[in-house]
Amino acid sequence: MAETTARAEREPARDGEFSPLVLGPLSVWPPVVLAPMAGVTNWPFRSLCRDFGAGLFVSEMITARGFLNGNRLTRLLASSRPEEKPRSVQIYGSDPVDVGEMARALVDEGVEHIDMNFGCPVPKVTRQGGGSAIPLKPRLLARLVRAAVRGAGEVPVTIKVRKGIHPGLLTYLSAGEVAEAEGARAIALHARTASELYSGRADWNAIAALAASVSIPVLGNGDIFEAADALEMMRVTGCAGVVVGRGCLGRPWLFADLAAAFDGRVPDPPPSFGRVREILRDHAERMIEFFGAPMAMRQMRKWCAWYTIGFPGSARLRASLVRVDTLEEMEAALATLPEDLPFPDSAIHAHRAKGSRTQEVVLPEGYLDDLDDDTPPKSPRTEAEIRAWERALGGG
Ligand SMILES: Cc1cc2nc3c(=O)[nH]c(=O)nc-3n(C[C@H](O)[C@H](O)[C@H](O)COP(=O)(O)O)c2cc1C
Q1: What does pTM read for this prediction?
Q2: CA-closest residue to ligand 1 atom 18
Q3: Where are the alpha helices (DSSP H) in the chain?
Q4: Residue 389: its pLDDT value, please?
Q5: What percent of the chain is predicted at pLDDT more than 70?
Q6: Does residue 47 share a domain with residue 81?
Q7: Most CB within 10 Å of its CB: which of 19, 93, 104, 327?
Q8: 131 lines ligand 1 (CB under 6 A)
Q9: Domain match, 189 and 71 both
Q10: Which of these, 38, 199, 194, lies nearest to 123 by C-alpha position?
C-alpha cells in the first residue's frame, strides 16, 4: 500500500487536481515560485528560468537601506526589464519606516509582488536581532508586515520564514498568525530552523501543520529537486504552491519539468552535455548584457561549476572553469567534454550551494527576555555599514 501511494504521489497532476496560486490580484500557474536567492535570482537568471517554464520568479533579497540610499549595485539587483511580468522583489529590512517606504517605491516602479525575508540565518544579522530572529517577536514582525502591506497598497505582500531558531524555539506558527492578521497574502515556509541552515531534510510535516493552521496560502519550501517532488509536497502537505531553490541552480530547465508535471505531462528527459553547454552560454550572454563582462564572468565561475557537476571529467574541467575571465575562455574549456554525455543522475540531487553545516544561532544579549517588545533592531545606516551587511547576507 505504502509503495502504491508513493508511486501515485509522483505521477503528473490529474486534470483539475491543483489550482493556480492566488496572491491578491495575481493568479500564478503553475503554482511554482523561484526562491529568492542572493547572488542567484538576478534578472538574467530569472528570465532564463521563465523562458523554460512559468510561475513567479522572485528577486534576491534587496536591503531596504541600500535601496533607499540609491546604492548602484542594490538598485541593479532589484531591477528588471519591461517584459518581466509579474515582477517580484524580496525586501530585506528590519525598520518599519524603511520597509514601508521601499514598498511604496517598488509599487511606483511597477513591481507586482513583494516578498519579505524573515528567514535569514546569517550570524551578523541574527546577532542584531534581524532575519530569522524577528519572528521571535510577533509584535515587531506585525509592525514590519503592516508597514509593507500599507506601503504596497493593492500589490500583494508575502512573507518567507524558517521554522524558527532551533527545535526548542519554533516561530513559524505564530508567524503564520501574524501574516494572516496583518494582510500578507501568503506565507512561505523554508521548513528548516536557522540552526539547521541547509542541512538534513526539510521538515514537510511543518509545512502541513502551517497549512492546517492559517487560511492564507502556504508556500512549501525545501528540497524540491525534481518536478515530482513538487507534486508530492503539494499532495502530502496541502500547501498552495511550492518554492524552488537549490534544485534549479545550474538546472533552469527544472521550470519546464514543473510546468509539464502540473499540466499533467511527463517531463522531458534531462539534457545531454551539449545542450547544457548551450544553456550555459545563453545564461552567460544574459549575465554579460546585464552586469557587463568582467562582473558577469566572475559570477559565471560558480555557475559553470553548478551546471557541470557530476558529468564525467567535470572535476578537471572545473579547475579551469573557476578561472575563466571571458566567454571565449569559458567556451573553450567546455569544448573539452563530449557533447553526447548524458545528464548524470547524481547531479539531480547534488548540493550546489550552502553545504551541510549547522550552527548555533547567536541572538542579541537578553533578546528572549521581552518577546512583546516591538522595537526594531539596529540596522546599518552608513554606506560602509550597508556594504558590510550586504556582503554578509547569504540568504535565508
Ligand atoms: C545561494 C542561496 C541564496 C539564498 N538567498 C536567499 C535570499 O536572498 N532570501 C531568502 O529568503 N532566502 C534565500 N535563500 C534560501 C532559499 O530561498 C530557500 O529557502 C532555501 O534554499 C531552501 O529551498 P531549497 O531546498 O529548494 O534550496 C538562499 C539560498 C541559497 C542556496
Answers
A1: 0.96
A2: 245
A3: 2-9, 43-52, 64-68, 72-78, 96-108, 123-126, 138-152, 172-181, 204-213, 227-237, 254-262, 273-291, 293-308, 314-321, 327-334, 383-392
A4: 76
A5: 97
A6: yes
A7: 93
A8: no
A9: yes
A10: 194
Buried b / exposed e across 55-71, counting CB within 10 Å, b at 16+? Answer: bbbbbbbbbbbbbbeeb
Q: Are strands 113-118 and 88-92 parallel, antiparallel or unpaired?
A: parallel
Distance 200 CA to ligand 1 centre (A): 15
Three-state DSSP state, 34: strand
pLDDT in tens, 153-209: 999 999 999 999 999 999 999 999 999 999 999 999 999 999 999 999 999 999 999
Task: Go through the chain and tell me how many residues it has.
Answer: 396
Look at residue 189 and give its three-state secondary structure: strand
Range of the domain at 278: 273-341
On whether both 323 and 201 belong to a single domain, the answer is no
- Nearest-angstrom CA–CA distance, 221 and 229: 11
The 10s digit of each residue's pLDDT in 338-376 is 999 999 999 998 888 888 899 999 999 999 999 999 999
Same-domain status, 196 and 335? no
In contact, 122 and 392? CB cutoff 8 Å:
yes
Ligand 1 and 36: CB distance under 6 A: yes
Torsion of CA 9, 24, 93, 198, to 10 degrees: 0
CB 222 less than 6 A from any atom of ligand 1: yes
Q: What is the C-alpha to C-alpha distance for residues 227 and 229, in angstroms, rounded to an integer?
A: 5
From the CA of 246, give the closest atom in ligand 1: 27
Q: List, for residues 270-309, the tens digit of each pLDDT value.
A: 999 999 999 999 999 999 999 999 999 999 999 999 999 9
Cell numbers given for 303: 555557475
- Burial track 4-43 (b if 16+ CB lie within 10 A, e otherwise): eeeeeeeebbeeeebeebbbbebebebbbbbbbbbebbbb
CA of 338 to the centre of ligand 1 (A): 33
Whichever domain contains 126, its CATH number is 3.20.20.70
CA distance 136 to 367: 9
Handedness of CA 37, 35, 159, 203 (dihedral sign): negative
- For residue 99, the CA-to-ligand 1 centroid distance in Å is 21
